Amino acid sequence: MGYPINPFKVHFLTRTIFACKSSLVTPPLLLFSLILMAQPSEKEVKMTLWRNGTLADWSVGGTVYWDKEFKKGFALLNGHKNKELLLRYDAYSDEIEYLDDEDKRMLFQRSEYMGAIIDSITYRYIDYLDGGEKKSGFFNPLNEGETILYLRNTKTIFYKAPENGYESFIPPKFIQNTSYYLKRKDRPAMPLNDLSKKEIFAVLWEHYADLRTYARENKLRMRTVEEVIQVLNYYDSLPQK
User: Fold this and answer.
1) Per-residue pLDDT tens over the stretch 133-158
2) Which one of 175, 193, 211 terminates a domain?
3) For residues 104 and 164, is the Cβ–Cβ distance under 8 A?
4) Is the domain of 109 the same as that of 177?
5) What is the pTM of this model?
6) Residue 166 phi, psi dihedral angles, 5° rounding
7) Which of 80, 82, 144, 192 could form an SS bridge with 180, CB 3.0 to 4.6 Å?
8) Are 94 and 138 in contact (CB under 8 A)?
9) Which is it for strands 24-25 and 31-34: parallel, antiparallel or unpaired?
């Protein structure tokens, strides 16, 4: 079976410090080792696994970045283009990196007032719910308006420990995860299990009857982004209860 990884049990080795002083932070079960070096190309993530009767460190295969290459884009301030930069998204740590004027890797500020455009894809820092807990992170808006459908791209670690002698060990590697969230005005974004009438109507419950009628009359199954956005535009046009 595959095991989801708790980030507080993973050892991180980050080979640059993103314009901060060198430091070593060791909260419980977490070890960050930050070393100031000249322009590295990657973050290396390691984890300790019990293998063949001993504990051993394994480098996680793949990359933390959704796209390893720095792409042209812009910093956004209150939704407006502020500065042209070269950027990339760390989908494992939920961080945006950019290159400064000296080609040093810098960490993008996390703030509700800040955002970014990377290769025409917009990133906004918003509140969302995760297991009932309020958190914040970078999301990709798929429409504009009071009610917004967001795409969330993340990476997690997967590995497989054999349960018997007939199974093979699969070393840790990064895997991509894509999910949708629905956000109403000033409320945290709500996770959706999938794109469907059931999921959308559960969030927009106060206009359930109106939305059900609209979807039926327009033959909308709401299994595509385009059809969901059409329903959200209609929802925004209704008097809010």
Assistant:
1) 999 999 999 999 999 999 999 999 99
2) 193
3) no
4) yes
5) 0.80
6) -95, -10
7) 192
8) yes
9) antiparallel
